[in-house]
Each structure stands twice: as C-alpha cells, then as structure tokens.
Specification:
Blueprint (H helix, E strand, L loop, with lengths): L2 H13 L22 E4 L8 E4 L2 E7 L2 E6 L16 E3 L6 E3 L5 E3 L11 E4 L2 E4 L1
Antiparallel strand pairs: 1-9, 2-3, 3-4, 5-6, 6-7, 8-9
The structure holds FE2/S2 (inorganic) cluster.
Length: 128
C-alpha cells in the first residue's frame, strides 16, 4: 500500500476544471448553512482511492470527479476503509461498495452507502 497514491495525487492536481470560481468564500452560498465544510484536499484523494475523515469517505472514481458517502457501514455501523482500486471495503465483514455511486457490490450489508453531496472549492472537497 501507499506509494502509488503519490503519483495519482500529482495527476489529479493537474486536471483542474473547477478553478474558475476562486472568489467565493462565504459570501454567495445559499445552499443552507452546513455547506462548505472541508472534507479533504483534492490532492489527498487519488483516482480510484480516497480518504475517510469525519465519518465520511471521499473518493475520486474518475479523474476530476469526486464523490463522498457516509462511512458508517449499513450492516452494523463499522466505518468503511478508504477506496482501493475503486472499491470501498468494510473491514468488519467485508461488504464492498462502488466508489462511483456507493452501491453495494457484495457482502452482508443490506444496501449501499448513503451519498454525501460534495463539490470542489479552492482545492478542497467540501460539503455541497
Ligand atoms: S459492519 Fe460492515 S460488513 Fe458488517
């Protein structure tokens, strides 16, 4: 584990696409109060991988596309691990989920992961 993530991070940084709105800190966001909480730096979320922070798993299923899900496994509430090769795995009983949409791939979980709406702002993945 580990080393390959660094190269993927560098690739993710150069792809951009979300850098056209740099002047929006707290002013114009009318999405309802809780939006804007930073979940992870985009540079910490490699394509096909991701991080678990603050009860949320943040993934980048394809270059420049970020997704986040509640990290509590629907089976018994154990926190899932970060995605590896596009698959999110619960360490407790090995339920597996897609990093693209949180859907259940296999294991005892009765359902997929609950999506957390996110957007990219200032080089971070934040709650939408
Ligand atoms: S708690 Fe996740 S598979 Fe059982």
């Amino acid at each position: 584990m580990g080393g390959a993530a660094v190269a993927a991070v560098l690739a993710a940084c150069s792809s951009g696409g979300e850098e056209s709105a740099p002047s929006n800190d707290n002013a114009g966001d009318d999405s309802g109060g809780a939006g804007g909480d930073v979940l992870a730096a985009t540079s910490d979320v490699p394509v096909g991988g991701g991080v678990v922070a603050g009860g949320v798993v943040v993934a980048q299923p394809s270059d420049g596309t970020f997704r986040a899900y509640e990290a509590a496994c629907p089976h018994q509430g154990v926190l899932v691990g970060p995605p590896e090769d596009g698959v999110i795995t619960c360490p407790a009983h090995r339920s597996t989920f897609s990093d693209a949409d949180g859907s259940l791939i296999g294991g005892p979980s009765p359902q997929g992961l609950t999506e957390v709406p996110v957007r990219v702002s200032g080089g971070n993945v934040v709650r939408a």
